[in-house]
Amino acid sequence: MGFDNETLSRILELQEVDKVLFSFKERLKKIPEEIENKRKEISEIENKIKKEEGEIRNMEKEIRSLYLDLQEIEDKIKKFSADLMKVKTNEEYRACLTEIESAKNRKREIEDEILEKEETLEERKKIFERFKNMVRDKIEMEKENLKKLEKEREEIPVKIKQAEDLRKRRAILVDKNALEEYERILKGRGLPAVCEILVQNEKEERKFFCGGCNSQVPFLTLDEMMRTQRTSKCHYCGRILYIKRESI
Ligand SMILES: [Zn+2]
Q1: Which of 17, 84, 187, 208, by CA, is between 20 and 30 Å from 70?
Q2: Residue extents of the structural domains in the chain
Q3: How far is the CA of 16 from the centre of ligand 1 (A)?
Q4: pLDDT tens digits along 71-116
């Protein structure tokens, strides 16, 4: 029953590699989603910039078209003013004056509209410049992070291969039956399959717990472990238990 100290230490070395392998594999599972999120984050900012650039261009177009309207109305005023010299009757004269008056009103309206739109545009451009300056570094940083993630995604499989090679070399050194038992527990319970007994001092009494499932380990089990210098098993979860000499 149980493993001697040498078998235990070889199994613990094997378990170290398995922990590393496990964390690499877990990491590899998460990377695609992280890459996806980074890409989304970057394109969201870039789209925001594009959208605002489009809106600013539209505002500039509107203003240009208002200047054309203004030109047109000024031409109209000139034409009516010239007509004024040529009219024959008072009625025609009055009609002409009315046209000039309403054209002048329209001209003022357009000028006001241009002024208002130009002010709004200028303010919007300022805000946009500030926004671009603010996100420029962020975009650079996120692109840098994206590159790192892509590099990590390429490197982890290599690291997994190396760890698997190391695992093979370590597994050879472990007694066949012990290895089988370790792997069976690992498959059923996951890491750790071998765990240290945790000691808790409560007043005068010491209590011992399984480092895997936290259930209490009877003192008799401890006593036997000390006597035989071998590992034991958790009665609850079945994991292999060991205790460090200095814990006793
Ligand atoms: Zn347990």
Answers
A1: 84
A2: 21-173, 192-247
A3: 19
A4: 999 999 999 999 988 989 999 999 999 999 999 999 999 999 999 9
